[in-house]
Specification:
There is one protein chain. By secondary structure, the chain is an alpha/beta fold. It is built from 15 helices and 9 strands. Strands 1, 2, 3, 4, 5, 6, 7, 8 and 9 form a 9-stranded mixed β-sheet that branches. α1 runs parallel beside α2 and α6 packs parallel to α10. The relative contact order is 0.10. The C terminus is likely disordered.
Length: 354
């Protein structure tokens, strides 16, 4: 392995044997050769480790970390960060793959401006079943305006993935920003903070990362942990406050907390349970009000376009019991086919709607 490692690529490995070879092939064939490939084996139930050992025999740049228990994606990434030798960190999930020149393009872009803290792409290839399409994550114009405007965009918007970037390793250690462990939504506490704390962020307007919707992957398993989002969202706010970013972007952070935590968690309660759990809704509401007592004063909330679900949120804020009662009746009627897709009520509703 080169002593001058440019990028440490961290690959958490869990139940991905079906796609793992494609992932590894895309990494070991990178046009940028000064890389190390840190694969963190998170106790799979398939033959991913056999595949990993096979590749490690052929390519000495591959380093294997064996976790002693299944600790989820965040812990796997942290384990990789802790031993990384590269100036930059990159992340690839073991069921995804990347363009062969991805890291060379990202690194050259950094070098062209004298060294960036983060180089990210605006777009990814999203692969769902047999379909592939380009999905934009970061609008190019957000950074062209100013770093401050870019920070506002990042703080307010839900998605800030880290696997389409290279990030200076020192950003993690200097700011004590590490992934949440043994939780889903592990990147929520740190992604926005990393983008904001970085002095230089550069965008490459190309899709270089292939994201696969794999229902068996780490991020799509353990549905019993659906409430991890509550914990990681609070960690997000606490990190922003600790780093002095919250006061700078209060409206953006609060609105993110409202849409990402409050709305999404309540939506989960309404969609994932046969009968609404009032105790869950009460807990979600209490946690939200603890951090944001009055979202109605938020400038983004005041200008948002109201949708059907917002009516339920308004009722919940007024009276949780009434909201649960109304929605349980709605679900009962829907299950009874009284307002199903082929029902008379639905067809009449559509006519009224239009």
């Amino acid at each position: 392995m080169s002593k001058n490692t440019k990028v440490s690529i961290i690959v958490p490995v869990f139940n991905s044997s079906l796609y793992f070879r494609q992932c590894l092939d895309s990494i070991i064939s990178q046009t940028l050769k000064d890389i190390e490939i840190i694969c963190v084996y998170d106790i799979s139930k398939d033959n991913s480790l056999e595949i990993l050992n096979e590749y490690a025999e052929k390519d000495k740049r591959i380093i294997i970390i064996n976790l002693q228990e299944n600790r989820r994606l965040g812990a796997a990434r942290n384990a990789g960060i802790n031993i990384a030798k590269g100036e930059y960190i990159g992340f690839v999930d073991s069921d995804d793959w990347i363009e062969l020149d991805m890291y060379e393009k990202l690194l050259n872009t950094s070098l062209s401006i004298g060294g960036a803290d983060i180089v990210t792409t605006t777009k990814i290839y999203r692969n769902r079943a047999e379909n592939q399409y380009i999905e934009r994550h970061i609008p190019l114009e957000s950074l062209r305006k100013s770093k401050n405007e870019f920070n506002k965009f990042v703080c307010k918007n839900a998605s800030a993935p880290l696997w389409m970037n290279i990030i200076k390793k020192k950003l993690f250690f200097d700011n004590e920003l590490f992934f949440a462990e043994k939780l889903q939504h592990e990147d929520v506490p740190i992604a926005h903070a990393l983008y904001c704390i970085a002095q230089k962020v550069v965008i490459v307007d190309l899709p270089l990362y292939h994201y696969r919707d794999n229902q068996k992957s780490i991020s799509n398993t353990a549905t019993e942990n659906r409430f991890d989002l509550m914990i990681t969202s609070i960690m997000y706010l606490n990190n922003m406050k600790r780093l002095g970013l919250y006061d700078l972007y209060k409206d953006e952070c609060d609105y993110w907390f409202y849409t990402r935590y409050y709305c999404r968690m309540l939506s989960t309660c309404f969609t994932d349970f046969p009968v609404i759990r009032r105790d869950y809704i009460k807990k979600i509401k209490e946690e939200f009000l603890k951090y944001i007592p009055d979202i109605s004063k938020n400038r983004y909330y005041q200008t948002k376009k109201w949708e059907r679900f917002d009516i339920f949120l308004w009722i919940i804020n007024k009276n949780t019991s009434i909201a649960c009662f109304i929605y349980n009746i709605y679900k009962f009627l829907k299950i009874s086919f009284l307002i199903g897709k082929n029902s008379i009520f639905e067809s009449k509703w559509k006519k009224i709607k239009h």
